[in-house]
Amino acid sequence: MLAKLRLLSAVVLALTLPLLTNAFVVDRDAARITLPVFKRVNMTSTANLLEIDQARAKALRARAERQYQADSPPKDPVTDKIVSYVARVGVGSPLTFFDLIVDTGSSNIWAGARSLLYVPKGSPQYQGPVAVTYGSGSFAGTEYGSTITLSPDSPAISQSIGSARLAMGFNSVDGIFGIGPANLTLGSLPFSPNVSIPTVTDNLYDQGFITNKLIGISFEPTTNLSNPNGELTFGYTNPDKYTGILNDVPITSTNPSSKYVGINQTTTYGTESLPILANTAGIVDTGTTLIMFASGAFSAYKAATNAMSDSATGLLKIVPGDYAQLESLFFEIGGFKYELTANGQTWPRALNTVIGGQADGIYLAFGDLGSSSSEGLRQSEQSSGLCYNPLHERY
């Protein structure tokens, strides 16, 4: 897993599913399915970015521990995510296309947020009610057996799809394209709470379209509000999207991060290796925007950077003089060390006003998770201790 380095032209993450600790081998002759991904910024959102990611972290913990009722939406949903990474997916036959948020922190696929009571075309197979609660909203509806198409030249894949009759918090997209582990679907079928739903990666593999349960995720830096410069690859990794080698690291055994794409890592700051976070578990989550540190680590990072809390955005803010002194963050993951440069730690200035900040302000893309590192889930697009969000770029 690669940290987001500003020296690289792209961010690349390779995931093997099911989540095993043994090394994987990429078969260059395997079937290759590529799905374009683009960033979408919600200009109408008034939600606080930090609050959204904190709410998501709570929902992730609850889902892993199955401490919520699948058919009960959150009492105080945080709506309208500011930054999303979206793929256009075709459903049914003839095809209906939907813009779905790419999410490694969940595994259900559903549509209908902007066109409720959607029923897949063709001959969908009724499978019963379905519901999922997210930190940024929820949906409830009906699960159908249908087909999906991931690109114009890819085959139709048999896939279970949720059709929303109620959706909150997804006004700017049509639904979710969950690509996490299949166990995250447990509890989403109220009448069959112990039954999981095969993911798109499972079905691609089982139906013979790919020979490796492998997902590649890449996203190139951009300052545009919407830009189709990312991609998902199934069954292979695109060698044009990275330099060097992709390192294989084991999934953490620490709960609840182990239920997701979880990693153990140690975080230090600067050339003096100032401790920020001792070896601990976090998750890879494309659905989280910020780098969310556990409270102790967040305080250490805030002090190291001489940052101030900004009430308008919920982020840390530094003055130009402090930015000139800002050093790199280093993440040691699976024996490999990755550097996040000073520029990589800042929120894109072109998007400052989108989050309620000053146009010329310098904001750090980190948040306080509001929990201790002993909980086993530090979440962020890169963090919680560190949650790596492979699609969120910095400038």
TrEMBL record:
Keywords assigned: Aspartyl protease, Hydrolase, Protease, Signal
Homology family: Belongs to the peptidase A1 family.
GO molecular function, one term: aspartic-type endopeptidase activity
CDD domains: pepsin_like
Entries under InterPro entries matching the protein: Aspartic_peptidase_A1 (IPR001461), Aspartic_peptidase_AS (IPR001969), Pepsin-like_dom (IPR034164), PEPTIDASE_A1 (IPR033121), Peptidase_aspartic_dom_sf (IPR021109)
PROSITE patterns the record matches: ASP_PROTEASE, PEPTIDASE_A1
Leader sequence residues: 1-23
Record flagged with keyword Hydrolase: yes
GO process terms (BP): proteolysis
Name of the featured protein: Family A1 protease
Domain Peptidase A1 residue range list: 85-395
Keyword Cytoplasm appears in the UniProt entry: no
Lineage: Eukaryota, Fungi, Dikarya, Basidiomycota, Agaricomycotina
